[in-house]
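Please predict the structure of the following assembly.
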Amino acid sequence: MKKVKVATVWLDGCSGCHMSLLDMDAAIISLAQKIDLVYGPLVDAQEFPEDVDVTLVEGAVSSQDDVNKLQKIRQRSHLVIALGDCAVTGNVPAMRNSFPVNKLLQRIYVEGAQVGKVIPTDGVPSLLKQARPLREFVTVDLCLPGCPPPAKTIAAVISDLVDGRKRETGLAVKFG
Amino acid sequence: MRLPQKKLSIRIDGELISAVEGQTILQAAKANGKYIPTLCDLEGLTPVGACRLCIVEISGTDRLFPACTTPIQDGMSVTTASTRLAHHRRISVELLLVERNHTCAVCVSNGHCELQSLASAMGISTVRFAYNYPKLGVDLSHPRFVLDHNRCILCTRCVRACADLEGAHVWEITSRGIHSRIVSDLNQKWGESRSCTNCGKCVQACPTGALAAKGCAVEEMVKRADNISSLVHRREVQV
């Protein structure tokens, strides 16, 4: 049987959704036999591959780098799933949205720092004015809210997709 | 002496129901075990029809009516659930979710919030509108309670609990539309309010994390809105 190519991506989030993904107990063993994890923080691949079946995206879109990544992901994935509240609503990363970016960075990296009081610019992408949910940038096929979404829900959705079913309704959903 | 109450016959979702004159559609439905979703309604407080979740269809008119403020009439036929109603109710909840900052994950009322549980019950996994992310304040001036405008849905349950039950009239709404805010006294800090009796009824009546006890961490604010209703009923008991 051909394995389903799954990728996971971590944008502006805390990686809690990835923790939840790994928290599905024994289900992960049977699932691992049916999927090929081709990209993400859990594997080594450097470049997002072509022709991915399902991509789970954790985190809000917070920088131009996030936007570029997300657009590439959308082009190269058949299904894009918004994984968790940050990807669906903006959630905690969006709590900065009512403050100007320069004031925010000043407060954290200069006023709030004990040593090395400087706003980092080297090797880090510059922030967008606001952190916003995925669907405002690309088409999202399925939203799994939750902080994090329960492991059982993630397992159920991936298993359905692996078995060729696309689940639209009947999912237990909860923000937060 | 109480006058005998006139009985009226109405239909709710096709079922013939006997109700009492003066009841609202919501009261008649509840008395007969019919569920209509609500958010701003709290048994015992004056209904205002603020949230628009209890909208129902009435035969003979195309308009949708809020069940909480519409009195029953003899022979009325009411529909409480349809595709059209579900569509409008869902839009109402989505608009509430995008209007302010309902960051459930870090809210004191996470897991005990009426807005959150309604969204879950409706299967809302995302919204169709752009999030507003407004800049809103938190009033920490009261020694025992907190007012967080980020979570407020302007249901006015606090306003009515304070006016109807406590008789203190601390809360009111200022401004209009998207600028509407709950204010205490004459737009003073809550802690400086001279009419507040510190009774906490507003906190118990609040359906979200907008009003909470001070010192609560995430998920810790569990409220008893039913205490407000039972308090009203006990007051009506004539000994």
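Chain B touches chain A through 24 residues (CB under 8 Å). Residues 83-99 of chain B form the longest helix (17 residues).
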